[in-house]
Amino acid sequence: MLTPEQALEKREFMLREGYALVQNILPETLLEELRAETERLIADHVEAPELRYQGQHIDEFAVDNPVIDKLLSWQPAYEALAAMGLGDFRPEGKVIILTKEAGGPPLYWHQDWVFWNDPLSLSPWPQVVALNYYLSDTSEENGCLRVIPGSHRKRFPLHDRIVPAHEQGARYVSEDDPVMFSDDPDQVHVPVKAGDLVLLDARTLHAAGRNRTDQRRTLVLAWHLRPMDTVPEFWQEEVPAAIVARDPAAEYESLRTPGEFLKS
After folding, report:
1. Which among 134, 147, 202, 242 is least buried, having the fewest CB atoms inside 10 angstroms?
2. Considering the domain 4-228, what is its CATH architecture?
3. Are strands 197-201 and 94-100 parallel, antiparallel or unpaired?
């Protein structure tokens, strides 16, 4: 359980850096359940060649799977979110099982925000967050998460050099691409322990390294969204004018590439 001081510190870190780590959110009993269930699903799954950089990429819905339903109802995780002032986030109802296979390739640089045409791209608070539950310890050796801190709200050189994420091009780049798999001077590594939770703002640039070990590492990712037409209760500072003037009934064309709303 986070103390009020810890929760505030983590929220401020996330607002500033675009991610946050909450340790020991899953007990060993639930970890074992999730490991067994994900391994069962992986055993029956054929990895698509175009998803080789993401490893096994399996969508699983809570309504169809009691173990996943248990994870998406796990109170300690939602208590941590509430303590951080993020209690208005709700899960999509499914997870994505992601692996870094033994000897598997790195994951390219990308961000997952698809609303860059929307003034909400300017929001000082997160709107869409990935809850990444790690079932394995991670390190640079087995391809831990890498992030560009602050890239959710500030334009970095990498933004204008990378290929658009996932199906819009990044899945098909060569593994020797000098940009998509580069070491970036602004990057930080985020090693974790099994049972830890990493919160990641969808706008944050991130990647993962190659797995140089002979063991698979697995995480379960669950996207969470908050209401698009409200300001979080904790936010007491000025709201960007473009968000104040935003028409909540308007429809904004999907766009994965940052535009005018991501400032230098």
Report:
1. 242
2. Sandwich (2.60)
3. unpaired
Side-chain half-sphere of 36: how many Cα atoms within 13 Å?
9
User: What is the tens place of the pLDDT at every residue in 95-145?
Assistant: 999 999 999 999 999 999 999 999 999 999 999 999 999 999 999 999 999
Domains of the chain, residue spans:
4-228
Position 264 scores a pLDDT of 86
Distance CA 160, CA 143 (A): 24
Dihedral over Cα of 192, 195, 199, 203: its sign: positive
DSSP 130: E
Would you state the pLDDT for residue 34?
98
pTM of the predicted model as reported, rounded to 2 decimal places: 0.96
- Which runs of E-coded beta strand occur in the chain? 19-22, 57-61, 90-91, 94-100, 107-110, 128-134, 145-147, 188-190, 197-201, 206-208, 217-225
Which residues does 164 contact at the CB level (< 8 Å), separation at least 6? 170, 256, 257
